[in-house]
Amino acid sequence: MSTLEGLHVIGEANFSDHGANRLGASALMQGLADGYFVLPYTIGNYLAKAELKKIDADTPECKATVKEVEDKINKLINVNGTKTPSYFHRKLGKLMWDKVGMARNEAGLKHALEEIPKIREEFWKDVKISGTGAEYNISLEKASRVADFLEFAEIMAYDALDRDESAGAHFREEHQTPDGEAKRNDDDYRYVAAWEYKGVGQRPELHKEQLEFENVKLAVRSYK
Amino acid sequence: MLGFLKSSILSKFVVAITGLLMVGFIIGHTLGNLLIYAGPEAINTYAVGLKDIGGVVWAMRIVLIISLILHVIATINLVRHNRKVAGNYKVTNHKAATFSSKFMAYAGLTILFFVLYHLAHFTFGVVDANAFSMEATLDNGRVVHDVYSMVVLGFRNVIVSLFYIIAVVFLGFHLKHGIHSMFQSLGIHGKKFTPMIQKVAALVSFVIVISLISIPISIMLGIVGGQV
Amino acid sequence: MNLKLHIWRQKNNKANGAFEQYAVSDISEDMSFLEMLDVLNEDLIVEGKDPVAFDHDCREGICGACSMTINGNPHGPEKATTACQLHMRKFKDGQEVYIEPFRNKSFPVIRDLVVNRSALDRIIESGGYISVKTGSAPDANDIAVAKSKADVAMDAAACIGCGACVAACPNGAAMLFTSAKLKHLNVLPQGQAEKKKRTLAMVDQMDKEGFGSCTNHYECEAACPKSISVEFISEMNFEYAKARATAYRD
User: Fold this and answer.
1) What percent of chain B has pLDDT over 70?
2) What are the residue ranges of helices labelled H in chain C?
3) What would the DSSP string read from start to end of C133-161?
4) ∠ at Cα C202 (C199, C204), nearest 5°?
5) pLDDT band at B3 (very low <50, low <70, confident <90, very high)
6) Does residue B118 contact residue C232 with C-beta atoms inside 8 Å?
7) Predicted pLDDT of residue B82
8) Smallest Cα–Cα separation from C118: which of C110, C89, B121?
9) Which of B4, B6, B7, B9 to mutate to test the interface with C (most CBs of C within 10 A)?
10) Which chains touch A (3+ CB pairs under 8 A)?
11) Where are the domains of chain C?
């Protein structure tokens, strides 16, 4: 269970027995391992004991969430600009691919952190969505996703810039061995970074969860 | 008794089993009919022979009538439901369905009407009472119903023959799909068996159609029954 | 390349649908069919019109989300190919293309080409599982599975549940789907205990959903993007009849 009562995080989204990078095989192994060994002891146990009360739609929390979502939908539809959600998706995707890809560097990440807010601003000024929020609407769905991407992309860039070392699929070009392998800096970055969202356009706050190694020693992984 | 109609698969089973019985009948009937080529003596002896074993024939007739009724009820029920639920496309472009498979219901209905007419004609004699009441004397002196003359006179009528030929050709298409379908519906299948039975079904149907339509054609051409 | 599209447009399940004509131009022959629709949708959004709604997800032929009938063929003219993996090079420049949803009475249209296929989910829910005790995981290879059986189970499990078989069936039957799902579990040792119960439950649910019945046109097999064999239907027929015939014993 996560820190939220009833919210279980399992399988691919679990912590990381099989590496922090959710590559195909490690994600699959985590899913299998959790499905076989962890899930039967956790979710079933929780469901057997939990009091799953029906949630009333009239509670203030419920009402507030519904209103929040409706406001967001109305805001998106009322922009009524000239460019499609896919246009922004592609523009953001290209920037992320070029500057926040597997190999990234300080200059590129700083550039991305300048550009992402500009794309986001343009998005909220000029996105065009057909139809209304009261029907099955694929352009609204896509726009909602792109709006999320535009916030998340920024956090990814902040994190990549902050972690001034190379580790796994985070390859900072400044930190590599002479033969081009990732060079870690365990002294300064032996932690899991949890970024707290502080609102659109605000710098997220970094929380560090230190990694303690009691039984194994940190070593360089070599594929050679 | 008709509870199977509620289940798609059990309906298919009923259609397949009743179909199998009727295919058996058609093969026997075709073989019997071909005796017409052996002359009046042969077919009239055969016909009276069937009457003589009465009980068995009646049992078979009852089984066949029940089969026919169940076959028709089950298929009409399935077809009506299927037509209601199947997608109605602007463009249809079948990749695998054959003419026979798509023609099943129409062929079946035509055959049903034909069978009723055929029974009225040759079994109950309501179409042509004179021809039906003819008698023949066998070589052993026994006076029997003259099936030979009845058939010859019946098929000299072009309209009767044409209806017969059309119905038999439809029957051929019905059997071509039906015989192989029977096995698939009953769960008898295989990578080699299914293509084989499809070929066998086509061959059997073809032989039945040729055998049966040869009779009215021969009669109309005067090859058979010239002396009647 | 340029194409003339006739696309089924329907606002929702209650509304009447109709075909609308669209012209698309400068389509690359390397695009997938869905990407061609993406291009059309971009133009439609800019023009202030509603884009064509269609289901899609992985776009690599494994999720079973995409569902449209192209010129009378679910997933289009190519054998063993989903619409997302169908390339525009399979069409001729200037060709007229009719795009319709997967049609069946049990697949109500949600919008345009998007249909609700949850009837298939309910068939799975009724018996498409194996009950296991929770607790410690069984040892690997504790239950030996013969290679021949594993192969058949894999062939059946290749079904991605897209519903093309239903859409292609002139009778509107869901028998290829149901039989593949049944066979996948019924052939394995783990599936034996509940075989009879599963067969009865899933077939009865299939009938309850109102699907049609098989008359062996084999359009389903021809339309299936995973080439599931109609042999499974034959086997389901037998297994179901056997289960019904012996149901009195339970």
Assistant:
1) 100
2) 33-46, 118-127, 147-157, 164-168, 175-186, 195-208, 219-223, 231-245
3) --SSPPPTTSS---HHHHHHHHHHHT---
4) 100
5) confident
6) no
7) 96
8) C110
9) B9
10) C
11) 3-110, 117-249
Contacts of A83 in chain C (CB under 8 A): 46
Specify whether the CB–CB gap between C2 and C92 falls below 8 A: no
Rounded (5°) CA angle A77-A79-A81: 115
Note the pLDDT of residue A25: 76
Whether pLDDT at B151 is above 70: yes
**Which CATH code, of 3.40.50.720, 3.40.50.2000, 1.10.10.410, 1.20.58.100, is assigned to A59-210?**
1.20.58.100
Contact C45 A135 (CB under 8 A): no
CATH topology for B7-84+97-220? 3 helical TM bundles of succinate and fumarate reductases (1.20.1300)
- The verdict on A41 touching C (C-beta cutoff 8 Å) is yes
Q: Which residue of B has its CA nearest to C236?
A: B187
Domains of chain A, by residue range, sit at 1-53, 59-210
Distances A63 to A4, A59, A60 between C-alpha atoms, Å? 20, 6, 5
Return the pLDDT at A27: 80
Spans of all domains in chain B? 7-84+97-220
Mean pLDDT for the stretch of residues B94-117: 95
Checking if the pLDDT of C136 tops 90, the result is: no
Tell me whether residues C42 and A130 touch, CB distance under 8 A.
no
pLDDT band at C134 (very low <50, low <70, confident <90, very high): low
Residues in A closer than 8 angstroms to C49, CB to CB, are 130
Distance of alpha carbon C157 from alpha carbon C176, whole angstroms: 12
Instruction: Please say whether the structural domain C117-249 has been given the CATH code 1.10.1060.10.
Output: yes
Beta bridge partners of C98: C6
Interface test with C, best of B11, B77, B78, B85 (most C CBs within 10 A): B85
Is it the case that residue A188 has pLDDT exceeding 90? yes
Identify the pLDDT of residue C135.
64
Give the C-alpha separation, B197 to B184, whole Å.
10
Is A128 in the C-facing interface, judged by CB distances under 8 Å? yes
Specify the 3-state DSSP secondary structure of A26. helix
Q: Do the chains C and B touch each other, judged by at least 3 C-beta pairs below 8 angstroms?
A: yes
Q: What is the rounded CA–CA span in Å between residue C90 and residue C112?
A: 24
Does ipTM top 0.90? yes
Across A26-52, b (16+ Cβ under 10 Å) vs e yields bbeebbebbeeebbbeeeeeeeeeeee
Query: C3-110: which CATH topology?
Result: Ubiquitin-like (UB roll) (3.10.20)
The answer to whether B215 touches B161, Cβ cutoff 8 Å, is no
pLDDT at C220 over 90: yes
pLDDT at C127: 96
- Check residues A85 and A10 and name the one with the higher pLDDT: A85
